[in-house]
Amino acid sequence: MVEIDETEIPCRSKNDPVTGGGGRSHQGKMLIVGAVEVQNGGAGPGRIRLSKVSDYSADSLHPFIAGNLAPGATAKTDGWSAYPGAPSVKHDPHVVGKMAAHIVLPWVHRIFSNLKIWALGVYHGLRRKHLQSYLDEFVFRFNRRRTRHAAFRSLLGIAAGHPPFSYNMLIAPEAKS
């Protein structure tokens, strides 16, 4: 069972001050889709996946589902019309009012909440240019939260398998491959 939902987070522009308050001029919203593996009959979250999307259409959501859910998994959603028809998964829609979605999909909404607080606390807001990198860092940390030593060894192994990168190489989209 995997809870899937989508959310919006504010985008901080380059010129926004790092301090909070009414002086911020957000440059719109960034759209995100998230999936949370539900363990022990709903007793806790397992691994997560987060991805930026251009919109909430089936053309955007189905590739995320296909790339992140095992064939035969059950996708528990809020009943959004773009989810049915995703390949190789069972769809378990729970059509609810907007205010009750956090009751039906508690773990994915908790992840979104933690992501937003983390982004404000660590980065003072996220910028569109590096959104997927921020999401990848959050996912890496969350999925290894119970095995800190293994997380450190994983990070060292990943780093040791690559030549040194300059800052410009790190922020270039082609550096991800």
Which helices and strands occur, and which strands form pairs?
Layout: E1 2-10, E2 29-39, E3 44-53, H1 58-68, E4 74-77, E5 90-93, H2 101-104, H3 106-123, H4 131-143, H5 148-160, H6 167-171
Parallel strand pairs: 1-4, 4-5
Antiparallel strand pairs: 1-2, 2-3
How would you describe this structure to a colleague?
It is a single chain. Residues 21-26 have low confidence and may be disordered. This protein has 177 residues and is an alpha/beta fold. It is globular. Helix content is 36%, strand content 21%. The protein contains six helices and five strands, in the order βββαββααααα. The two termini are 30 Å apart. The longest helix is centred in the middle third of the chain and has 18 residues, at 106-123. It has helices spanning 58-68, 101-104, 106-123, 131-143, 148-160, 167-171; strands spanning 2-10, 29-39, 44-53, 74-77, 90-93. A five-stranded mixed sheet has the order 3-2-1-4-5, sandwiched between helices.
